[in-house]
UniProtKB/TrEMBL annotation:
InterPro entries recorded: Lysozyme_Inhibitor_LprI, UCP037256
Protein known as: DUF1311 domain-containing protein
Keyword vocabulary terms for this entry: Signal
One Gene Ontology cellular component: extracellular region
UniProt superkingdom: Bacteria
Residues in the signal sequence: 1-20
């Protein structure tokens, strides 16, 4: 089990570097002029931008690995989380906490995937 955690972490780190420019966050376009306060803050803060890349990459990987019913539930949870993230507005501490909590939930989702032994 420990190996799986390390393998996923390594994959996420490698995949996050393949997203190109550090100026753009993975889950939305930072060049848009009509960004919400949370999005603008994420684009302007490198640590939050990195968290967004990691979260979006993890989410994308999980949606590829999960069965259709679980995938739909994960997408619904993601939409609900994005709404909660928006309530942070420009509060960096709130956004950081939101990403930390989401990564825990995504990690739990990864652990729940049925795998052959």
């Amino acid at each position: 089990m420990q190996f799986r955690k390390h393998a996923l972490a390594l994959f996420i780190v490698c995949a996050s570097y393949s997203h190109g420019s550090p100026v753009g966050a993975a889950s939305f376009d930072c060049s848009k002029t009509d960004l919400a306060a949370d999005e603008k803050t994420i684009c302007e803060n490198r640590a939050l931008n990195d968290q967004d890349v990691k979260m979006a990459t993890t989410f994308d990987i999980l949606t590829q690995l999960m069965a259709m019913g679980s995938r739909d539930a994960l997408k619904t949870e993601q939409s609900e989380w994005l709404k909660r993230r928006q309530t942070c507005e420009a509060d960096v501490a709130c956004l950081t906490k939101a990403y930390d909590e989401r990564m825990v939930k995504l990690g739990e989702a990864f652990q729940s995937i049925n795998r052959p032994l």
